[in-house]
Amino acid sequence: MVSTADIIMLGIVSGIRLAEQGRRAYSEATIERELVLPLPNFNPDVTVGVATNYFLGSKHLEENFWLKNLYEKAAHGAPSEEEEKEFLAAYQEFKILDDVKTGVIKGSESALSREALVTLVTVRQFARNSSPYPHAFQRVLGSLIEIGIDYFANAPGALDERSSTGRALKGFLKCIDDLDFALSSVEGIARNLFSAALETIGGTPSLLGGDDKAEKLIEAVSRGLVKDLRERMEKVAATDLSKQEKFEMWGQLVLRSVLSNAGTTILSNPGSYLSVAGADRQTLVSSVGTCVLDAILDEETIDLTRLCSRETLDRLVKSALVTLSEYPGLAGVDHKGLQRILGQVAGDLAGSARILCPDILPEMMRLVLEKSALNMDVLWPEAFRKDPARHLLIAASRELLEGLSMPAGPGEQWTPAFSKTQLIGIAETVLDEVVQNPDWLVKRAAVENTILGDAVKTALASLRKIPPGRISTETGVQVLKAVIKAVALRREFLDRVKIKNEEREALGIILDLMVDGMLSEGVDPRARWILSRGDVFGLVASAALKRLSEIGVSQANILKLGKVLEQAAEDIRTGKAWQLDLFVGELRTLSVAN
Amino acid sequence: MRGGKEMKGFQQPVRCLEKFFLLLLIFVISGCVSHIQTLRDAQDEFNRAASLENALKMDPKQGDVATLGNINASYRLSLKILSDLIVEKRTDLEKDNLIGIAYTLKALTEWRLGEYEAALTTIRRVKEYPASTLLPRDMAMVEALRGLIKNDQAYAHMVGRDYPYEEIKTLLKDSLGDMDRGLGIRGTGENLRLYLLMAKFSVLKNWVDLKGDRGIPRPASFNEAAEKQEWCDQAKPVWNHFVSEINRLGTQEAVSLEQGWANRLGMPGACR
């Protein structure tokens, strides 16, 4: 026998369950409700852009002169209102004809109506017949026989700040605790940089040393980057989400790169970086990240984000860290030394880099920084620190690339296509020499160019006389490097000498002599067959230039070189014995002419 | 035939019974479902605004100040309802698995009101919940929203003529990529796929208008034929996908929709 109390209890329990299931049914019905989705913004009218896009490359333009006229005006000129209307009417007409011809239009379809759109953009939560929810009726019935219990478990993963990872992460977390998280962009920066920091710290053993140096380092690096990124992102928050994403991505990459390189560079050299007190230490350490980021994201000269890879970025950051550890003063006073160098390289070299190979720009930045660390006081004296154009390596790079990117003049035949590696190779040779002797950039009296500019220009002028296909770009690079090394040892290569009634730079005469004697049309085909082979020209030119730098660039020595070359061609032509090794040896021991 | 009639006859009282139960339940539990009702009110306001806005997009000449005001007011009202609801009834919404719906609708409303930063914050909030919080339609919209915002930013720059050609093009191309993420979500219906494809058409329409706009200076490297090829490389697969969805539907509305976009974009002839 069921008691009244049991009935009451059953009623209460059933009522509660029923109410609970009813609530679920109601919420599920709400989840499944259809939503009308608004289309994003666009101009619904058929525009000139649509019509020109349609006709570009179509046969209608070739077949209808009047249409071609209209098209030209619409696409490239300034059509009148009438002409624009006529052009749009022509679009409608030709499009319908084309669609009928190709079977796209089969009958009397009407244009898109409001009703059609509203019907089709009313969207259910789930695909048809695939709702996972039981029917409300089933649910109510089911509730009478089913009791569900949900367990929620909450197990927060506590971070042990006594561990080395914990300390390292604490360094990052300290930098974000003063940010204003009301702004979405700030939250995004913190979140993404945190995950980048987390991964990098975990994968960089040197950052897990366990003392407080790593913590301070990470804090300083992160704080600077977060601040810089926040400012950039706030500027474009409302107008360019793509740019915001780009900033965020590069911020992460730079942070990863700085943290992973800082582990080896800064922590192994703590005296330079971490012994500086207070805010200055922070500026010194954080300036690497922010300066590199600024250089990459500065779009006024060239978009470096298209040119930089993870590896290039890593090398650049490493060079910046080394340079700063050698010359902490670069980040001193107004903290902009590094930024000025990078900005000036981008600004000065962008033009010629575009012509030669845009990819070299980040590498040139790295080279300039790397070489600067060797002799900063001479290359960029303290007095000129606010004028990066006075940095000798930047000036040298500019002069070199401008010379290499000059278009061939009339009658010039050899047109090299330098690869990135070849350009960097030449630049490295040049910058090494400038580090040894800054006078390369001195202008001589009555001469417009610097010594470097003259050497590059003269060498290229001779090489460009070589008929196409006779030497490779690599051989040209070999000769250019030999020229730089020879001029470095003896400046007289650029003095004017008179030979055969012609007076000009000795270097030009020597190279012309070799081109004429080995590669020109005037050389006997049998001799040319051997002398223009592979790297023969490069080896001969290098040996000759080196020897002349040793014995002197006199008129007599140049004439003697000419005779040796003539004799070699003659020996080959007449079938006498000739060996490249012996010939190069002969050049290397060329005696001083009397 | 007869069996079918019998079935219909059987279903009729069952449906009445269902409605009775549902009403009874609503009565019983009305005290604890006010948050659901409030969410439905926000949905209604949003749907009203979106319907008006879509109608206006098809025929902008019909748009007067009052209509624009109505659209804005409905979106604002929807946003106010949702913002208050999320603050005051978060636990109830979470318990009823409605928090995803509420956040998604809030993000969409913020997008339409041009409050892009707020919309992105809203998306971040909802993504902090377990993945199952977002159901297919909402998940797809959340994934596509960045693209929808980028399109509108690009369009604003086109109207204002205040941004370089290449930057606007980047926004539009990125927008197409983001929308693909929405299209990649499984379990969405054909109408959502159609919506996202039409959203991509809106982007492509903006791109073709950008190409034809002489008021926005083109870069020195601008090459008409290459630009058209780039546009067609994006437009062709979207068009083919759209046509296959339309053919599957086979309704008069669908055919009408295809015709309207074909005219507006010059497809498929422009890329033949």
According to DSSP, the number of beta strands of chain A is: 4
The dominant shape of chain B is globular
Overall pLDDT metric of chain A = 77
Number of strands of chain B: 0
Shape of chain A: extended
Biggest β-sheet strands, sense, barrel of chain A: 2 strands, antiparallel
What is the first-to-last residue Cα distance of chain A?
Answer: 139 Å
Mean pLDDT of chain B: 87
Portion of residues in beta strands of chain B equals under 5%
Question: Which strand order does the major sheet of chain A show?
Answer: 1-2
Helices and strands of chain B: which structural class? Answer: mainly alpha
H/E series of chain A:
HEHHHHHEHHHHHHHHHHHHHHHEEHHHHH
Oligomer: heterodimer
Number of helices of chain A: 26
Q: Cα-atom Rg of chain A, whole angstroms?
A: 37 Å
Low-confidence stretches of chain A: 140-160
Sheet of most strands of chain B:
none
Helicity range of chain A: 55-70%
Global structural class of chain A: mainly alpha
Low-confidence stretches of chain B: 1-10
Tell me what you see in this structure:
The complex is a heterodimer of chains A (594) and B (272). Chain A has 594 residues and is mainly alpha-helical. Among the domains of chain A are: 34-123, no CATH class; 437-588, no CATH class. Chain A contains 26 helices and 4 strands. In chain A, the strands form 2 sheets. In chain A, strands 1-2 form a two-stranded antiparallel ribbon. In chain A, α10 crosses α13 (278-297). The radius of gyration of chain A is 37 Å and the shape is extended. Chain A starts with a helix and ends in a 6-residue tail after the last helix. With 272 residues, chain B is an all-alpha fold. Chain B contains 11 helices and no strands. In chain B, α3 (65-88) packs antiparallel against α5 (99-112) and α6 (116-127) packs antiparallel against α7 (136-160). The longest helix of chain B is centred in the first third of the chain and has 28 residues, at 2-29. Chain B is globular and about 60 Å long. The termini of chain B are far apart. Residues 1-10 of chain B have low confidence and may be disordered. Chains A and B meet through α1, β1, α2, α5 and α6 of A and α1, α2, α5, α6 and α7 of B.
